Amino acid sequence: MWIDELKEEKIKLGLERMQKFIEEIGKPKYNVIHVGGTNGKGSVCQFIANILMEDGKKVGVYTSPHLERVNERIVVNGDEIKNSEIESYSHLKKYNFTYFEALTAIAIDYFQKKQVDYAVFEVGLGGRLDATNVLQACITIITNVAMEHENYLGNSIEKIAMEKAGIIKDAPVITASKGKALEVIKGIAKEKDIDLFVSGRDFSYDIIEKNKFLIRADEEYKIKSPLQGKFQAENIAIAIKCAEILGIEKEKIVKGIEKTEWRGRMEKIGNFLLDGCHNPHAIKAFVDSLGDFSYNKLIIIFGAMKDKKVDKMIELLPNATYIATQCKAERAMPAEKIAEIGEKKGKRFIVTKDVEESLELARKMAGKNDLICIIGSLYLVGEARKILREQYEIA
């Protein structure tokens, strides 16, 4: 497809090209829910979309990156955009878009053509200069703020928070940010005189047991999460607060959440556990959730992108047998480099040449009751999932 000719790895922040596109096609008529933050964005998008669909709405969802197919990024009521539909947008070449910009432009127009009631857009990188920020939201969400992408967003929590808060316009804001990041967001919300709903103040959550949470917002909800991981409590709470602002009934909120699926996020396939945690904050959340699983021995297949804080991520890994691998993404860190960093952190990695070899090695090493974790990058998870899906014959 023509979209594959664009370099997926290329990042070119700025809104000029997207603004020109919007000026030419006109502002979309659907309601936009804009989801930014460091971690949990994709899960929040899925929870909100499923709640809206349960309420009878037609919903578009735009997320990134994809695991196996680019089509996964643009979805309407659970149906992915077709290759032929992506091809029909080849005229967008004239804008000299980056890969992400082109897909964002496709999503904006595609949702309009499909006459969706709501479109849930996940921010790609940062917020202020992200391609999605040409949209006017009816609700803005900033899940949380942690150190990431310092080359683009700044070298402090305050600077990164300012970039992420760049999506705040004149719609209510929901956030689970804390500390200095929250102070930045509070300041902007006050300056713009808009409603701000903060986790721990305006809504909260408790973990009852594995996959079961108590969410307190306008009402109380006992929720059985379809997605693994303690960290989903916060994501569910954000989605519930969003749904309450939209006036959706409690019963539909609960049913929408319980129907949610999100591949590659604490996803169990056989004795493999796949999660796209790709920064220290997410690695910590993943490790904290391992207690929900019973296993004898832990094996970790780890791969990451070159621009990530790999040393900090490795520091947070629990005791395990470690396997370093390299997926096919252009930005992927060589397995040898991962092992070198691991050595400095007192953790010995077995080096494998590619993802398939790492899966084969882990399978040989693992007993029936052992757990094999595949973490460090959504690109790695996508590549591994494709192999495992074929082997386990799952969708």
List the helices and strands and how they pair.
Layout: H1 16-25, E1 31-36, H2 41-54, E2 59-62, E3 74-76, E4 79-80, H3 83-87, H4 99-113, E5 118-122, E6 139-142, H5 150-153, H6 157-164, E7 173-175, H7 179-192, E8 196-198, E9 204-209, E10 212-216, E11 220-224, H8 232-245, H9 250-258, E12 267-269, E13 272-274, H10 280-289, E14 298-302, H11 310-315, E15 321-324, H12 335-344, E16 349-351, H13 355-365, E17 371-375, H14 378-392
Parallel strand pairs: 1-5, 1-6, 2-5, 6-7, 7-8, 13-17, 14-15, 14-17, 15-16
Antiparallel strand pairs: 2-3, 3-4, 9-10, 10-11, 12-13
TL;DR of this structure?
The radius of gyration is 20 Å and the shape is globular. The protein has 14 helices and 17 strands.
